[in-house]
Amino acid sequence: MAKQRTIFSCQNCGAQSPRWIGRCPECSNWNTYAEEAVEVEARRPSIAEAGNGPVTLEQISAAEGRHIPTGIDELDRTLGSGFIPGGITLLGGDPGIGKSTIVMQALSKVASAGKKILYISGEESASQIKLRAERMELDPKNFSVLTENCVEKIVEQLRKIKPALIAIDSIQTMYTGDLPSAPGTISQVRESAAKILSFAKAAETAAFLVGHVTKEGSIAGPKVLEHMVDTVLYFEGERGHAFRILRTMKNRFGATNEIGVFEMTGKGLKEVPNPSGIFLAEKPKEVSGSVVVASLEGSRPMLLELQALVSTSGFGTPRRTSIGVDGNRVALLTAVLEKCEGLELKGHDIFVNIAGGVRITEPAADLGVLAAINSSFLNRPIDHETVVIGEVGLAGEVRAVMGIDSRIREAEKMGFRRAIVPRSNLKSKIATKMEIFATSNVEQCLKML
After folding, report:
1. Shortest CA distance to 369 belongs to which of 275, 290, 281?
2. For the chain, what is the total number of helices (H) and then of strands (E)?
3. Contact partners, residue 252, CB within 8 Å, separation at least 6
4. Bridge partners, residue 352, by sequence
5. Residue 382, phi then psi, degrees to nearest 5
6. Measured between alpha carbons, how far is 369 from 329 in angstroms, rounded to an integer?
7. Which of 172, 194, 193, 191 is nearest to 183 (CA)?
8. pLDDT band (50, 70, 90) for residue 298
């Protein structure tokens, strides 16, 4: 038998120590170390089949890396046109956001196309899964379900069935008999994922791993879990909104930062092929503090309504609150606006919001934030047929942004007539019927508006 020893592992970051430590030196969290028994000579699974050796690129068939569509266009966009045989996808998100729903819908579509699928649940019973499938009106044919959380038994069933696509819901509930620790611990999550990965790579079976998230928003378990898989997807969305954003954080088979937009309904998640029209459907006209910005998420341009409210502060320190935009970025842009335009914003509260519950991570919305704050402070509405695009520097200069052509085309398709863009982006001619106004600094932009 393999010799056993005891170590202490941080349940937050996975750091290990031969003795108990009150505060983790890696993640600085307190009381996260737990005792775990490990085998010194534990057998590690291999992703290569027995007898496989090195091969040249010429001997590898290109067909092995082709995507297979899931039948859900928004999901295929984030995956890079579909799933890859042997590819592992990790899907994370807040509780109740729709992780299990989107996975079941994808499996149902693949099963309808004649491929073998298997949905493995360690959280729900078979009857609960049946009730959910009936509520979502999924096709029960060829939809196989396995309720099990022992990885060894799961792999045994997978070798018998040989499915093309599997889903494990969730990876934190799985455990392997090689380790005595409880399911959900750092070592169990890591070893369980490693065994599933080794089988999937050898059998060319694609797999969805559903992962829980911590209160900080990261996927629970060791950070190495995200390095082991091929694709990492995050479900985003506010509980008060019906829209969900599926964002690609890592993808070995496609572009990163791609997004898919869904709407949560009583029968599951519904695709939103035209998110710009949905997010701008309720935009008010002739109202101060409202401006339309063009955001580029991956290869998809989206028009979003950015709102700002500037009001007199009743406190000694004014508030700077933002939803959907980085708060530090808003504070920085407020300082730029005070410096360049001389606005007295020190005694005012500033609230910035992206309508629809969407988050913007790129700096191309900087000019829109400044325009909305200035509009609300002066109580002067911005023309509702104008879209604002540009990154702002600390000196008040407006810098060029990527993908200006696709942003302009999206704005023209949605009926906008004018666009304010950085002057640096006009080095190449933009083919459009819209009026294009170029600006090189914040002062010029606000005068145009």
Report:
1. 290
2. 11, 21
3. 87, 230, 231
4. 308, 322
5. -100, 140
6. 9
7. 172
8. confident
- Per DSSP, the three-state class of 3 is coil
Helices (H), 136-253: 151-161, 186-203, 224-228
Helices 366-378, 327-341: axis angle to 10 degrees equals 60
CB neighbour class for 383 (10 Å; exposed up to 12, middle 13-18, buried from 19) = middle
Q: How large is the C-alpha radius of gyration of the chain?
A: 25
User: For residue 125, how far is the Cα from the chain centroid?
Assistant: 28
Q: Which helix (H) or strand (E) holds 435?
A: strand 435-439
Q: Which amino acid is at 435?
A: E
Q: Tens digit of pLDDT for each residue in 3-28?
A: 567 788 887 777 888 888 889 888 88
For the entire predicted model, the pTM comes to 0.79
List, in order, residues 6 or more apart from 314 with CB less than 8 Å away: none
Quick: pLDDT tens for 36-62. Answer: 776 544 455 555 544 467 878 777 665
Taking Cα atoms as reference points, which of 298, 199, 253, 264 lies closest to residue 84?
A: 253
